[in-house]
Design a protein that fits this description.
The chain has 157 residues and is mainly alpha-helical. It contains 7 helices and 2 strands.
Length: 157
């Protein structure tokens, strides 16, 4: 089963960082984030709830409300985001225990568990080396120099 919560969370946080960089007075709403992600605002609010509980974002209700990062984009790693929104194990073992009488079934869980833990640790180490600011920079490099104009036009529609 595919889960895009992490991708959506990084997208949302990159959008928040970009808003803050361009116009610190304006914070995106869950509706604006949902429009950028092309999903329902309820999905965004659920993910924002996880990010809020992890201390990565804060929100303000009302006319001038919106969501913003609690720290600079350069201080928030993708690993921080991953741990905030992903509750499932990346590589799960069997749903039900394998046959313990089988020579393979009796030990496969131990063998795979060690491999999967190493893979999880390697992935988290890589994510810890990348910040939201890095993602924002790479995004802006692709869309510059038309980025600000594109964002303003997008927000007006």
């Amino acid at each position: 089963m595919s889960n895009s919560r992490f991708t959506v969370a990084v997208h949302a946080m990159t959008l928040m960082a970009t808003f803050e960089d361009i116009n610190p007075e304006k914070t995106p709403t869950s509706k604006e984030i949902a429009r950028s992600v092309r999903t329902n605002p309820v999905v965004i609010r659920r993910i924002l709830g996880d990010l809020r509980r992890a201390g990565l974002v804060t929100s303000q209700a009302g006319v001038k409300g919106g969501v913003r990062l609690t720290r600079s984009a350069g201080e928030i790693t993708l690993c921080d985001v991953y741990r905030a929104v992903e509750k499932d194990v990346l590589l799960p073992l069997h749903n039900s225990p394998p046959n313990a009488v089988c020579p393979i079934g009796s030990v496969i869980g131990d063998v795979l568990s060690a491999i999967f833990i190493d893979a999880q640790n390697a992935m988290e180490a890589r994510l810890a080396a990348v910040t939201i600011a890095d993602v924002m920079r790479d995004t802006l490099e692709i869309t510059e120099p038309r980025f600000v104009e594109m964002l303003q036009r997008y927000l007006q529609t």
